[in-house]
Design brief:
This protein is an alpha/beta fold and about 325 residues long. The chain is built from ten helices and 13 strands. A hairpin with a 2-residue loop joins strand 9 and strand 10.
Length: about 325
């Protein structure tokens, strides 16, 4: 424990003159009576109240010490701690093209994917997990991290709005999304490296084909699980118009052949998610993966620790007030 305002501890020196003054005052205040002999008082019983005579003084001193300690702001110290945990390295590659707004999954594809993936992240506290998002182009939203709080905040902010606003090109660049995720895993020392690629369309953008990206992943020992999101046939899609949002039926086109080939090339699995519950199947497969040891350096932040001292000071003041108004009450 350390003190943020350690200079306040010098106030404790004021206790020295206070204690000296109390002792001198107590001696002067003791009543005296001259008698020829005191032998008759030797076996006289002493009132139990005598033992509480100095209690208010002691309580006042303890209160003063506690208040000074509170002013000095005691804090728990920051420290770094190296720990060894079991986990795997996982990159989530999620399609954020506008077609992910289709509402065949509830409330829509992108929100369903976020909800289930967030649950998955919370269930893997020992894994390094990162996030890549892609539409017509791809970029890393969050690199591999064990700090899942930061990852989840970035994950919840993920949406199709950046595509709608023209910040990135619309479309489906599966190969670019996979390649971006692979670039984040290629230097990993983990025995198990995994990419979970989720999309609802057919590759129609990007300079890297999906199968070429799969071959690159294979070279680096990365296993890819692919998920095709969408029902069969057509799906309701909210189309903005001048008259408001109108729902139209759009065809569900998922290149399952390519997604299955990506998974097969990297010794992974392909899943077709036609509902929210189907999205969870991929996690059962990932749980079977071999785990590897990770060295993690954890940082502990300073926290205020004055609460206990403040509570003791309050209780001492309360006890003194009770004693002076009950057991040690003085009659003028």
């Amino acid at each position: 424990m350390i003190f943020a305002n350690i200079e306040y501890l010098f106030l404790l020196l004021l206790l020295i003159p206070y204690i000296v003054w109390y002792v001198m005052q107590h001696r002067k205040a003791e009543p005296s009576m001259q008698v020829s002999t005191t032998w008759m008082y030797l076996k006289a019983p002493r009132s139990w109240k005598v033992y509480f005579v100095h209690a208010p003084f002691i309580l006042r001193v303890v209160t003063f010490v506690m208040i000074v300690l509170v002013l000095a702001r005691p804090q728990t110290t920051d420290n770094w701690q190296n720990t060894e945990i079991e986990g795997i390295d996982i990159m989530l590659a999620v399609d954020v093209s506008t077609s992910m707004l289709a509402e065949d999954l509830k409330p829509n594809r992108i929100e369903a994917a976020k909800e289930v993936a967030a649950e998955f992240i919370n269930g893997r506290p020992n894994d390094n997990i990162g996030l890549t998002i892609f539409a017509g182009e791809a970029f890393t939203q969050c690199p591999l991290t064990i700090d899942h709080g930061v990852l989840l905040n970035l994950f919840r902010s993920m949406s199709c709005e950046m595509v709608q606003r023209g910040m990135i090109e619309d479309g489906t660049a599966i190969g670019m999304g996979l390649a971006n995720a692979v670039s984040r895993l290629k230097d990993s020392k983990a025995k198990s490296k995994v990419v979970i690629l989720l999309t609802d369309g057919v590759n129609n953008r990007g300079d890297i084909s999906p199968l070429m990206a799969a071959e690159i992943a294979k070279q680096f020992g990365i296993r890819v699980y692919t998920i095709g999101v969408g029902t069969n046939g057509t799906a309701p899609y909210p189309m903005p118009t001048y008259a408001g949002v109108q729902y139209v039926q759009i065809p569900v086109e998922i290149d399952e052949t390519v997604l299955a080939q990506i998974a097969g090339t990297t010794n992974g699995n392909y899943f077709r998610a036609t509902s929210n519950s189907k999205l969870k199947e991929v996690y059962q497969e990932i749980d079977k993966l071999e785990k590897t040891k990770l060295n993690v350096k954890e940082f502990s932040k300073r926290e205020e620790a004055y609460h206990v001292f403040a509570l003791v000071a309050f209780l001492c003041i309360l006890c003194e007030i009770l004693l002076r108004n009950t057991v040690l009450k003085k009659i003028p």
